[in-house]
Write a structure and sequence with these properties.
Elements: H1 2-17, E1 21-30, E2 40-46, E3 51-56, E4 61-67, E5 74-81, E6 90-95, E7 101-106, E8 109-114, E9 120-122, E10 138-143, E11 149-153, E12 166-169, E13 172-175, E14 186-192, E15 198-206, E16 209-217, E17 227-231, E18 240-247, E19 253-259, E20 269-277
Antiparallel strand pairs: 1-20, 2-3, 3-4, 4-5, 6-7, 7-8, 8-9, 10-11, 11-12, 12-13, 14-15, 15-16, 16-17, 18-19, 19-20
Length: 278
Amino acid sequence: MLRRSVLALICAAACANAEPALTLDGITPLPRLSDSFGGLSAIEMSDGGAEALVLSDRGALFHLVMDRTGDTMEVASATPDNRTAQLGDTEGMAVDAQGTLYISLEGPAGIFAERADGTFERLKDHADFAGMVTNRALEALAVSANGTLVTMPEATATSATPFPVYLYKDGSWTKGPELPREGSFLVTGADFGSDGLLYVLERAVSFRGFASRIRRFDLTAPDLSEMTLLKTDAGTYGNLEGLSVWQDAKGITHLSLVADDNFNVFQSNQIVEFTLTE
């Protein structure tokens, strides 16, 4: 009895000290379903991973239905959704608790919110948006549980300049804590988990291909509680640009990442999925 109690305490202590880890679930290639199905820059999973929206950097939106009955996830169907077709250089996407769709643009920088009739209105800009470099502007967009929109640009002025974080709530913009810029990685996507933490997807480019990194932050903590969950070698995956953090029916947290093929026959659209263990 004493021995079992000691072992239980040791196990509890080990579990408490275990670092969060990502385990690869699988890689799902996405065929070119139409001329506009490419350049995928954002993904939003829903219904416990059964459905998803994926967004192209040319304004094309698609609704995917997933088949998770086998050993690996497959896309059962993909249906065009024309709501965002006229928005332009679309990069980030977020859906709030009420189902409202938000889109961020890379050039010129801006955020659009869906109206009740399915059309979009441009939210007022933060003063900084006008000075952002086209094609390096609002790459990532996320929405917190309380409805605060969080966006950030892909790049900053220098490799030593941290990433600014912009917060939109109740019609007003404020600036949040800056995220440290480390190495050659640049922001490509972001999402909030059910834990209230911000997950940020980053990309670095070299002659060997694309490297990916996922960092996690607590925007309410003085030190941001930064943690690196994933850092890959160049060429491990494709050009991962979009990130969705979601929970399945068992409450297990998953991360789904979508790759941009740049409408290039030598690259591919793909969804890469991980399970998070704490």
